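[recover] target loaded
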């Protein structure tokens, strides 16, 4: 039995994958109206100046590619979500600590979970609020709920929601199911081009990740349902 649903108004959507998700069977070719901006291969971060661009991890590049595709003009509230964040950088810091070495301040500043939204705000000159969400396997759904709550609190302007995750490095790679390096950006606001229905439901065995389910629903056309499993 599903609980009562929430309806999320979406103005624009973008997704980026390291490899073609259609060829992998993760997504259909997409809606004919082109609502979902879908890309793969090298992410487009050409708008970032070269010195800063060199500091970006693959995950941050994926974040920025998608966010830049859907962000509105001017300031916009931002919700970033990632289950693991900058895991490669975190692992390097832990290895340095284990070896008794000094931790690089630059490496630390780029490893914290709010580093990406902070850097986005700096590069875009965005003075609106920004937050970072991590909630284990429910990260995508919880981040999306945070974005919806922000919009409902003040529906006068849209909210930019960006999610992304990478595969965990060794020795953590076997701790969680192997994922795909990808990112998703949704601009939550009115007048909506899509209305995504969110409801709690039992997830069938072998279900795709929440972010992939969301993209599948968005690509199916207006009114496509998407369900996630709560603990």
């Amino acid at each position: 039995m599903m609980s009562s649903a929430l309806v999320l108004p979406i103005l624009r959507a973008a997704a980026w994958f390291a490899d073609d998700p259609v060829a992998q069977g993760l997504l259909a070719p997409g809606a004919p109206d082109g609502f979902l901006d879908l890309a793969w291969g090298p992410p487009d971060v050409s708008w970032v100046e070269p010195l800063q661009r060199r500091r970006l991890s693959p995950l941050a590049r994926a974040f920025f590619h998608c966010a830049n595709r859907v962000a509105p003009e001017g300031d916009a509230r931002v919700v970033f979500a990632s289950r693991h964040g900058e895991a490669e950088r975190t692992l390097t810091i832990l290895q340095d600590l284990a070896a008794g070495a000094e931790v690089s301040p630059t490496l630390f500043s780029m490893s914290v979970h709010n580093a990406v939204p902070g850097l986005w705000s700096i590069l875009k000159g965005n003075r609106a609020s920004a937050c970072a969400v991590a909630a284990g396997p429910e990260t995508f759904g919880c981040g999306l709920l945070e974005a919806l709550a922000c919009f409902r609190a003040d529906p006068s302007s849209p909210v930019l929601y960006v999610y992304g995750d990478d595969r965990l490095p060794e020795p953590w790679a076997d701790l969680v199911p192997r994922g795909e390096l990808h990112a998703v950006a949704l601009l939550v606001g009115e007048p909506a081009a899509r209305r995504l229905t969110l409801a709690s439901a039992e997830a069938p065995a072998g279900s795709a990740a929440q972010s992939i389910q969301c993209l599948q629903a968005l690509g199916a056309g207006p009114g496509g349902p998407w369900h996630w499993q709560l603990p």
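[recover] notes: The longest helix spans residues 139-153.
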